[in-house]
Design brief:
heterotrimer; A alpha/beta; B alpha/beta; C alpha/beta; A: FAD/NAD(P)-binding domain; 4 domains; 30 strands; C: FAD/NAD(P)-binding domain; 5-stranded parallel β-sheet; globular
Chain lengths: ~600, ~140, ~425
């Protein structure tokens, strides 16, 4: 067999039927073998498995191949897996190209067209692969300092954890007070710990920590820079001269927290009748209540019948629930309210036995440890449960009875779906959790926000506390509703990632940045003009081989975004993006149109 | 496999951004929503990489339609989208001069979960190229 | 036995499921050395055995294998699979640097160094045994690799069923078969330990009201995961007893959970979501089948879960508010589900072709008498600071994460594992390093 110039190995995955049920994998392999640059083509039930990776490693080690194409699922899942395998073979991980034949072929096409398309995508990946060259990660010095934005429990815990690893931390809080939402809570479900005790313990630690600097009353005005070298402009509200503080930091953790949902006027009588209050208001009353009577008192009035309505501002369904004036609708479950409601109900029933409680719910979600016990305890405490459907919510209206200013009508799913009316002198709404609005900061930092308006992680299981922007993490209720323990777990998870990132004092970045071919560059400067990142590309005077000074473009790799705006405008074709070169795309298009592998 | 599978003449090239549209296409896959197989998705960092000539070269080579699936305003490269839009204005102008049907090139924004939008774009383009057939562009132009 | 050498690590992770792997990776990435001790023949735990996972419907393999592979190849992580933990002593007076454990490597009857994972032994073996990795629904050979993406890729010879015919020994190209392999004793020492021993499902066998596991076509949820998995026992969803494609499938929620008298009093936390997920996958593979979920409360509390539930409702999956009282064998392989409606209107019964029991979750490991971490009445390990750090156990330097600390879904488990790794790292930064 004649020696091929390029030695591309093609590895095609069955994905346990996910691919092979629709793509004739062996046929694709045979066609791949006919490609001019392919020396090896193999298949495996699971390419991502160890034996699958071993095949690549062995072929690289034996010198059969010097470029790798894997055809399998979406590259987001396994690109790093295969790069890692190549590295273990002692090769450069960037000689790798991916063909997405599951998400973009077998799951959307069937029969011969699926097989043909898989073969063409492999031919195109091979065309790109032959131009791949070994690349080295960009080495960036990183400041051993992290910034945590948000001084609630998640932010405090994150700061303590990172500082515990010997890394300096700055903790920034917008309000005058650390502690966030926990400040407004009392006895916590399910074990009855006092929020104030928990906060005191953490705040004492964080304020006493020598490696942690705290800025309360401080807003983050602007964020710039990149991983290892971010720069924040802070504005202290107390500063009469508004002099912005600048903070250099290596990593940022968003712990911007949440607020309690405010019902709109008329929602279950809220804002309409003064006896309709929210759960946070009830908690405040319970904290302040020192009465030794047998009935809960609100504004000096004893409460005989209290109705608690669950899922207010949560689990909203388009078409059933009207959106708020600003157009928002909270389709998610707020996770913490069921236990908080039951906890409050138990507290009241046990302290004020003469106050009756009716809980109106859709589903009781006491999912966590100790929470189901709260539910059982509430039943034992003779809390009356009534169940409603989303499309037939309870109705709160005025009552003529002077003892009970309100009445709540419900179609009770626990009593033959009968319509029942409960007279009430207090109605408590379990208002859900909404994220704090950080739209401005998020758009400045290019952080994604989900349709639920919470900050959006890269992947809930693969990278649950990371953003797509390297060096920025998230923790706590800015991500999703969670309770204190859960927020602290998220904080620990974010802190461990930030600590690992900053532990060495330097960071290695993807090498997909612009590179100038100094033989070709004529110093036109079109690229510098087209460049969208200030400082990434400059025109420098250099001495050419003839000893004459000439102008040439120069890239600052740590700044370059790798967008390619420069490559498009160079008349000489002297600048291109490593790993994503224009030339590679041209060859990929050739492979797509050539039909050499389609039958 | 039938070796006589019909050769596909109407090829659609999709330039899909790696942060938005490409995972968006994956999301369509995860939902197992079928769409025409004459579509070839290339993962790009930012479509601003491609000069005007790239598009005409594609048509000359026989690509029937091109969809640029960008991140739109969500583009992680601040300023790149504007530059892209400006370039495409010039491309469209030249397409008109060369009598290439403008429907053959489409710029759209596709998010990571924009399944319906993705399917609509693909199906619309497929309909157009089936009606128009392969482009007849004078290679010497 | 001669006292074996002591292998030293910074952290000992007990359990190589997703919780243990994530904790090991988060510590390894910070430069700590980690030993992962796993009782099964492969790492990956329950997650690698699942089909797809909620709420993203990613295939479980695709999320687990990168982490398994990363752990297996990590320079700071050492895996001890197919090992029993015999003792774990903590010496708190030694400032946390005093964890000593003894593990026994069970014999695979295969030399791990010589074996190249070619599976020739498996192909030639004439003995078929039930494949518990496929929920006992299909057979495998008496010598076989546990499952296709297992790590390590080493076969295990089932000595109970092997007839010592010698064919595997003959066919093995590297002479790796060793019928006389003995258990191997090992001592490990570490500064910290993380317990990630996961969960098991309550056994159907102990539930007389569900037929004690004797009614055909009544399966538990993990068996259903295998039926739905792309590389499952039949490669499609069919009834185990007769291979029929079921037209009507029922889910029995809270089977043994929230049930003080017959099972466990607590909520098992994951069953609502996995039942909904399985129902969605089923309606994809069997579009004409009727799927009914009998439930008391749907607990879709995590990020994106409620939306997932509403989608399932919109897809036509039927949710019936009722408590299933008993299941009886019906005609033609069906099962009769007798249930009590929650609205108080009495009982009813319905035949289904296939019934899935969403069995309650119980701890995967009882630390007693090996490790004296405190447990609650629910037998899961407790935290001394559940609101500040749910991963701190009653023993200094010993942490817990995942389902070992109570039923938990994968998302919460992965986050908690990161948190446990953080606490362990912090603990080690604050105390003199043992090695």
């Amino acid at each position: 067999m004649e020696e091929k110039k390029n030695k591309v190995g093609v590895y095609i995955c069955y994905c346990g039927g996910n691919i092979s049920d629709h793509v004739d994998v062996e046929e694709v392999r045979n066609r791949a073998l006919k490609l001019p640059d392919v020396t090896v083509a193999r298949t495996n039930m699971f390419m991502c498995s160890d034996p699958g990776q071993e095949m690549i490693i062995e072929d690289l080690k034996s010198g059969k191949i010097d470029r790798v194409v894997v055809a399998s699922c979406a590259p987001s899942l396994h690109e790093t897996t295969f790069r890692g395998a190549i590295e273990r073979a002692g090769s450069n991980p960037f000689i790798y190209e991916h063909a997405n034949i599951r998400e973009q072929v077998s799951w959307v096409h069937h029969g011969d067209p699926a097989t043909d398309k898989a073969a063409i995508l492999i031919a195109s990946a091979t065309a790109k692969a032959k131009h791949l060259k070994p690349l080295a990660p960009i080495h960036v010095d990183a400041k051993r300092h992290a910034t945590v934005i948000g001084g609630g429990i998640a932010g405090i815990k994150t700061a303590l954890d990172i500082a515990g690893q010997g890394i300096d931390v700055t903790l920034i809080e917008r309000s005058p007070l650390l502690g966030g939402q926990l400040n407004s809570l009392g006895q916590l479900a399910p074990y009855g710990d006092h929020a104030s005790d928990i906060l005191k313990e953490l705040i004492d630690q964080v304020t006493g920590h020598t490696a942690i600097t705290i800025h309360t009353n401080t807003k983050v005005e602007a964020v710039s820079g990149y991983v290892g070298n971010f720069s924040l402009n802070l504005l202290k509200k107390s500063d009469p001269e508004n002099i912005p503080l600048t903070l250099d930091t290596g990593a940022i953790v968003m712990a911007t927290g949440s607020v309690s949902y405010t019902p709109f006027k008329g929602e279950y009588g809220f804002g309409q009748y003064e006896s309709v209050i929210t759960l946070p208001e009830l908690i405040r009353l319970l904290k302040a209540n020192t009465s030794s009577r047998s009935m809960l008192e609100v504004n000096g009035k004893p409460i005989k019948n209290m109705v608690m309505i669950h899922c207010v501002g949560s689990r909203q369904i388009p078409g059933i629930h009207p959106p708020k004036e600003n157009g928002t609708l909270n389709e998610y479950c707020s996770r913490t309210c069921c236990s908080a409601m039951l906890n409050a109900a138990n507290q009241i029933r046990e302290t004020f036995p003469e106050t009756s409680i009716y809980e109106m719910y859709r589903d009781i979600r006491t999912y966590g440890r100790g929470q189901e016990e709260l539910y059982m305890q509430a039943s034992a405490n003779k809390v009356v449960f009534m169940r409603y459907e989303a499309d037939e919510p309870p109705e709160v209206s005025k009552n003529d009875d002077p003892d009970y200013p309100l009445q709540v009508r419900i179609k009770d799913g626990l009593t033959f779906n009968e319509s029942l009316t409960v007279p009430a002198d207090l109605v408590v709404l379990a208002t859900g959790i909404e994220p704090n609005d950080v739209t401005n900061l998020a758009s400045q930092m290019k952080l994604p926000i989900g349709t639920d308006r919470f900050l959006l992680e890269v992947h809930p299981k693969l990278r649950p506390v990371e953003f797509p922007i390297t060096g920025i993490f998230l923790a706590g209720t800015c991500q999703a509703p969670m309770d204190s323990g859960e927020a602290c777990n998220a904080a620990g998870a974010a802190a461990v990632k930030a600590s690992a990132l900053l532990s060495k004092g330097y960071i290695e970045l993807d090498p997909f940045v612009a590179e100038v071919d100094t033989d070709k560059c004529q110093g036109h400067g079109a690229c510098v003009e087209a460049c969208i990142k200030e400082g990434a590309l400059t025109l420098m005077e250099v001495i050419n081989p003839d000893g004459n000074p000439v102008k040439q473009a120069q890239v600052t790799p740590a700044m370059c975004l790798g967008c390619g705006a420069c490559a498009a405008v160079c008349p000489e074709g002297a600048i291109d993006i490593n790993g994503w070169a224009l030339k590679q795309y041209e060859d990929m298009v050739d492979a797509i149109v050539s039909d050499s592998v389609a039958v | 496999m039938s070796p006589q599978a019909e050769k596909e003449d109407n090829k659609i090239l999709i330039l899909a951004t790696e942060t938005c549209a490409y995972p968006g296409a994956d999301s369509v896959g995860q939902a197992h929503s079928p769409y025409p197989a004459n579509t070839y998705i290339l993962r790009v960092r930012a479509p601003v990489l491609f000069p005007e000539s790239f598009y005409f070269d594609c048509f000359k080579k026989g690509i029937s339609g091109i969809i640029i699936m960008s991140c739109g305003e969500e583009c992680p490269y601040d300023g790149a989208y504007k530059a892209l839009a400006k370039r495409l204005d010039a491309v469209y102008k030249k397409m008109k001069e060369m009598a290439i049907d403008l429907r053959r090139l489409r710029l759209t924004a596709i998010c990571t979960v924009c399944n319906r939008a993705f399917l609509k774009e693909v199906n619309d383009m497929d309909k157009s190229v089936r009606e128009l057939g392969p482009p007849l562009v004078n290679p010497s132009l | 036995m001669v006292s074996p050498d002591i292998k030293k690590f910074d952290t000992l992770v007990v359990g190589g499921g997703i919780a243990g792997l994530q904790a090991a990776l988060d510590l390894g990435d910070q430069g700590y050395t980690v030993a992962v001790v796993e009782k099964d023949a492969s790492i990956g735990g329950k997650m690698i055995r699942l089909s797809k996972v909620f709420p993203t419907l990613d295939c479980a393999s695709c999320i687990t294998t990168p982490k398994m592979s990363a752990a297996a190849h990590h320079e700071n992580i050492t895996l001890f699979t197919y090992c029993d933990l015999v003792s774990l002593d903590t010496d708190e007076s030694a400032n946390g640097s005093g964890i000593n454990c003894r593990i026994i490597q069970r014999p695979r009857y295969v030399d791990p160094v010589k074996c190249i994972g070619c599976r020739q032994c498996e192909y030639i073996c004439p003995v078929h045994v039930p494949d518990m990795e496929q929920g006992g629904l299909s057979a495998k050979r008496a010598i076989s690799i546990p499952f296709s993406n297992a790590i390590p890729q080493l076969p295990i010879l089932d000595i109970e069923h092997c007839m010592l015919c010698g064919q595997c020994e003959k066919v093995c190209p590297t002479n790796a078969i060793d019928y006389f392999q003995q258990p191997e004793d090992m001592m490990l020492s570490a500064n910290t330990a993380i317990v990630t021993t996961g969960f098991e499902l309550l056994p159907v066998k102990t539930f007389v009201q569900y037929g004690n596991g004797s009614i055909p076509n009544v399966v538990d949820a993990l068996q259903m995961e295998r039926l739905l998995a792309p590389h499952g026992p039949y490669n499609r969803v069919i009834r185990p007893s007769d291979g029929m494609e079921p037209d009507s499938i029922a889910y029995v929620q809270c089977a043994g959970s929230r049930d003080k008298s017959h099972g466990v009093p607590y909520c098992s936390r994951v069953c609502c979501m996995y039942a909904i997920k399985q129902a969605m996958l089923l309606s994809g593979s069997l579009p004409l089948a009727d799927i009914t979920i009998y439930y008391m409360d749907i607990r879709a509390f995590g990020k994106g879960y409620e939306q997932f539930y509403q989608n399932a409702k919109a897809m036509g999956i039927e949710f019936v508010k009722a408590k299933v009282a008993r299941i009886d064998q019906g005609d033609n392989g069906s099962a009769t589900v007798r249930y009590e409606r929650q609205d108080g209107s009495g009982t009813a019964s319905q035949d289904h072709d296939l019934v899935v029991l969403s069995m309650g979750v119980v701890p995967g490991w009882n630390p007693e008498p090996i490790c004296a971490v405190s447990k609650s009445t629910d037998h899961f390990i407790t935290s001394i600071k559940p609101k500040i750090s749910p991963v701190l156990t009653s023993i200094n330097g010993v942490f817990v994460a995942g389902a070992a600390a109570g039923p938990k879904d994968i998302v919460d488990t992965i986050t908690e594992s990161g948190s446990a790794a953080m606490e362990a790292a912090k603990f080690m930064s604050n105390s003199p390093r043992g090695n």
